[in-house]
Amino acid sequence: MRQSRLLLPTLREVPAEADSASHAWLLRAGYIRQLAAGVYTYLPLGRRVLRKLEQIVREEMDRAGAQELLLPALQPAELWRESGRYSRYGAELMRLNDRHGREFVLGPTHEEAITSLVKGEVHSYRKLPVSVYQIQTKFRDERRPRFGLLRGREFLMKDAYSFDADWAGLDVSYSLMYQAYRNIMERCQLDYRAVDADSGTIGGEGGSHEFIVFAGIGEDVVAACDHCDYAANIEKASSSHSVNTPPLPGGAALEKMHTPEVHTIEELTQFLQVPPEQLIKTLIYVLDGKQPVAVVVRGDHEVNELKVQAYVGAESIELADPVTVEQATGAPPGFAGPLGLKIPILLDRDVSTLREGIAGANERDYHLRHVSPARDIVTSHIGDFRNVVDGETCPNCQAGKLKLSRGIEVGHIFKLGTKYSQMLGASYLDRNGKQQDIIMGCYGIGISRLLSAVVEQHYDERGIVWPAALAPYRVHIIPVSVKDRQQIELAEQLYEQLARKGIEVLLDDREERPGIKFNDADLIGIPNRIIIGKTAEHGVIEFIKRGKAEVEKITVEEALSRFAPPLQ
Amino acid sequence: MRQSRLLLPTLREVPAEADSASHAWLLRAGYIRQLAAGVYTYLPLGRRVLRKLEQIVREEMDRAGAQELLLPALQPAELWRESGRYSRYGAELMRLNDRHGREFVLGPTHEEAITSLVKGEVHSYRKLPVSVYQIQTKFRDERRPRFGLLRGREFLMKDAYSFDADWAGLDVSYSLMYQAYRNIMERCQLDYRAVDADSGTIGGEGGSHEFIVFAGIGEDVVAACDHCDYAANIEKASSSHSVNTPPLPGGAALEKMHTPEVHTIEELTQFLQVPPEQLIKTLIYVLDGKQPVAVVVRGDHEVNELKVQAYVGAESIELADPVTVEQATGAPPGFAGPLGLKIPILLDRDVSTLREGIAGANERDYHLRHVSPARDIVTSHIGDFRNVVDGETCPNCQAGKLKLSRGIEVGHIFKLGTKYSQMLGASYLDRNGKQQDIIMGCYGIGISRLLSAVVEQHYDERGIVWPAALAPYRVHIIPVSVKDRQQIELAEQLYEQLARKGIEVLLDDREERPGIKFNDADLIGIPNRIIIGKTAEHGVIEFIKRGKAEVEKITVEEALSRFAPPLQ
Questions:
Q1: Matching PANTHER family, A to Z (chains A, B) (predicted)?
Q2: Is B7 in CB contact (< 8 Å) with chain A?
């Protein structure tokens, strides 16, 4: 491709709208442009990278035995009512009416559509298992679209679905997909972890894994062991519970302290000059909109609401408002404590093993000291109700330490089980002629999100540094001066010869100053650069790898021999 | 691919919903399924063919120098208001609101989005010309979705746009696209014509061509010369006007005839026992919702409303209602005639050269005979206001005859000129620093429609007969009995060897009766079939081309040698 003809508008400045490194580079290097909040155009370079990602994903899906199909984006609202998600999905689901007033949604995901299809076409165990996938534009009306392609409202996704006769079959389908996802991550040269995850709103009975790409702007936090391969989303991660300090009942007697206007753990540590791990924090939650409970964790720990929710089996959980707190504890927020409460108390195991601590007195402006949980807190609900923290012991190997890192969720795979097949009535006849629910799995990867995630991990101070497998072009030829006949002739010759070998080459044939050309080349990030300058008359050119400092002086023949035609 | 694992549900009966041959075959052979009216799922076989079509289109676009990008489906309504199409597009435009109540449309086409992009990024003649294309799902809320993929509400389309500095540049861009479209049609083995066409609602000043694939169910009618390469949509086609019978004024005097309850041309020919070409038909139209006119054509001809509209320069044209007819003519519908009218009269040239004819008398139950147009009809508006008919002389070569055929419009290319660039403000600075409007072209081809159009031309009484370039698989291997060890082993061996050469093979490894397998194979339509039956023990197999009767007995080695690996 001749750069003079390419729609490749680079920007000198970081655009004001950019809120992450990948967003800024993709805008500046002319890969994407925004049309509306969270809605992007892929310019030619962006489209090329996207197609390479599509191809990698497609190859790995095919290798995993999944078949490509294409479901519609427009789906009758009726189908979503049947699954119960029409209302549950909330404002993220984009809705519209057709000219006859019939209600439709724009698919944010396709469990309903595929289950309904399979229900109509698969009726016997002889047609199972079957796995299908599609690469398709999805729509989700995010409340806060941001980070460019990372959290968009229209985005490209690969979603796959497996259908099995039994759970053992699902395990096989799931592990094929798990491996395919690992292959995709590795082919994209991503530093990532496959982490044990919560199944969230998609639901399902059999567990799930997220594929998290490490990045500072990531909205997910992962706890990963530095010794074994344990890794889990913090929503789900646990640590090995040390029982080295068994609870010691007795000790000093309870004592009330006046703590005027001291509401928070931070204020309390300052006021009393004690470390937060000696404090006992009591939070009042409301379950399913009606049942108040007290969750008690150490002052240096954070409540994990999903663990609480899973423990009690609630559909929803939210922090109580001040009125409810006062009703439950007899005091305004800031003075709740686990003693004498009439509501259920969920006690984190790390509080239960405290020798003693300081807790709220359930009375305005008072706390209690010498609280001995084993002696003073009356509850039968002791468990793991908190987030793990950096440096805790791995629950799997009991040897390594957990390290917390931020990351971007690019993929999520689920063992759905029979959630959708039951609701939509997708069943099959087994060998004995008995009707059975089909066992499902679903597997999603954000292809446009992957594009941004790769850039988050592959840039330097001058621009993008593409992994070879994803670069929009493989070679970038830059004649320093296109007015120099020897330079441009040599450049054209090399361009033709490489192109004839099937190699993707971009030729910067623009009449621009060398500084502008080199800056643009750095921004764009093509891995192999050939600079044709004054030494062209001796047949010598410069070869540079993007991201490396070394400049090699080589002959044209050498340059040609470095690039083998692409395989296949 | 193993057929036992493929999601390929074939149907024995023609489904009731099928309203065309391609629709019926694509449903029966398991290529597509309907999710809602005009909204289809592509099953694995359908997806494969669609991808082959995409690839052909992509290659031809690249060869024509266009760059692939991807614009969003979600577009702010504001953009459509700017171009004036938000209201003009009518009910076909799908509209929705986001969670904040902002209005969006789902792109049925992308002139607005691309013009707005180019406006922001291209400002100098040095960046022109540039041509871009995308392959994308489009949405149009058709009033009457039908014929399966032919007239759908969600469909796959390739749309391309060219941007030039001047009209000469547009001519070059346009002819590159014209040639690319011809290449696509030929690679799909379609019997088609590129026809001169009306620009319709997309508009534009510079003319357009439709690519029409001949098919009996087609909604377009093409007039094509049997001698030269003239071809035009009937909306635009004209014929050579013969002036062999100059108008002869005078003759017999006008005579009023009683024609009770005779309203139509058909009734009149029966009642008077005269051929329709001796009748003069007068239709009352209303232009732009207010101006009534009379259009006068021969009894055997049909008014061409677009020609009338173009002649008078009206935005809209519709047949007058009975009240307006009575106001304009003084008689109820059925008795209008061109004599004595107070409204403008548009006289078709073939009426103007009639020696005499029979016309309505503008009086209930009366007609006039011996009407001599040259003598009796007062108008200065004589022109071509009718559709051409089969067998007329070609207006181009004046030698051949025009033949009318029905066809499916699969592509349409337009010289838009400055219609959109003016409205949306896309301009550039020319060599002299002067601001100029960018000159645009747009070029669309329906990829999913192409799929159906190919099937309309490639089937026999047993199923689809794919052109080799589009078949979902190249070779179909059918062991007659999978329980026969020799047969299945030979089949597996051949399957592996062909697959290893990169050849797309489908192996029918199902435990089904031979009749079912052969019926399914005929339905699916893979071009090369290898049947492995009783002679397998001697290493002999049967080779059949789909659509041909001959059965060849060949050895396994011969079978292998017939299929070279794919190029590239």
A1: MITOCHONDRIAL RIBOSOME PROTEIN L39/PROLYL-TRNA LIGASE FAMILY MEMBER, PROLINE--TRNA LIGASE
A2: yes
Percent of chain A topping pLDDT 90 = 83
A14 in contact with B at a CB cutoff of 8 Å?
no
DSSP strands (E only) in B85-140: 94-97, 103-106, 130-139
Query: B48 is written with which tokens?
Result: 């494969």
Shortest CA distance from A135: residue in chain B: B47
What CATH number did the domain enclosing A126 receive? 3.30.930.10
Q: DSSP string spanning A60-89? A: HHHHTT-EE-B--SEEEHHHHHHHTHHHHT
Tens digit of each residue's pLDDT (9 = 90 or more) over A32-50? 999 999 999 999 999 999 9
Closest by CA to A272, choosing from A338, A373, A280, is: A280
The answer to whether residues A19 and A105 belong to one domain is yes
Q: Give the pLDDT confidence of A40-77 residue by residue, as tens digits.
A: 999 999 999 999 999 999 999 999 999 999 999 999 99
Establish if B446 touches chain A: CB-CB under 8 angstroms: no
Interface of B with A in 110-149 (CB under 8 A): 113, 116-117, 120-122, 126, 130, 132, 134, 136-137, 139, 141, 143
User: Number of structural domains, chain B?
Assistant: 3
Q: Cβ–Cβ of B99/A91 closer than 8 Å?
A: yes
Share of chain A above pLDDT 70, in %: 96
- Residue at B22 is within a domain: yes
Q: Which domain holds residue A360?
A: 255-383
**Residue A501: both structure tokens together:** 């070998």
A437 DSSP β-pair partners: A427
Q: Are residues A230 and A260 in the same domain?
A: no
Q: Do B69 and A50 touch (CB under 8 A)?
A: no
What is the predicted ipTM? 0.89
Q: How far does the CA of residue A36 sit from the closest CA of chain B (Å)?
A: 7
The shortest C-alpha distance from A50 to chain B (Å) reads 10
pLDDT of residue A115: 97
- At A487, which CATH number? 3.40.50.800
Token pair listed for A188:
């994209």
Same domain, B348 and B432: no
What lies within 8 Å, CB to CB, of B2 at 6+ separation is B507, B509
- B314 and B427 together in one domain: no
- Determine how β-strand B255-258 pairs with β-strand B366-371: antiparallel
Q: What is the pLDDT of residue A432?
A: 96
Domain shared by B421 and B322, yes or no: no
**Based on the domain organization, do B166 and B295 belong to the same domain?**
no
Q: What is the largest CA-CA distance in chain B?
A: 94
Amino acid at B5: R
Task: Evaluate whether residue B463 is within a structural domain.
Answer: no
Same domain (yes/no): A66, A160: yes
Q: Is A72 close to B116, i.e. CB distance below 8 A?
A: no
Across the interface, do A73 and B41 touch by the CB < 8 Å criterion? no
Within a domain: B350: yes
Q: What is the DSSP string of A121-141?
A: H--BGGG--EEEEEEEEEE--
pLDDT < 50 regions, chain B: 201-202
Question: Among partner residues A5, A36, A137, which is closest to B137 by beta-carbon distance?
Answer: A137
CA distance A416 to chain B (A): 20
Q: Which of B7, B144, B504 to mutate to test the interface with A (most CBs of A within 10 A)?
A: B7
Using a CB-CB distance cutoff of 8 angstroms, which residues of chain A are in contact with residue B1? 67
Cα of B114 to nearest chain A Cα, Å? 9
Question: Does the residue B175 lie in any domain?
Answer: yes
Question: For A503-553, what is each residue's pLDDT tens digit?
Answer: 999 999 999 999 999 999 999 999 999 999 999 889 899 999 998 989 999
Tell me the chain B residues in contact with residue A106 when contact means C-beta distances shorter than 8 Å: 96, 106
Least Cα separation, residue B45 to chain A (angstroms) = 8
Give the integer Cα–Cα distance in Å for A298 and A320. Answer: 19
Compute the nearest-CA separation of B55 from chain A (Å). 12
Which CATH number belongs to the domain containing residue A336 in this structure? 3.90.960.10
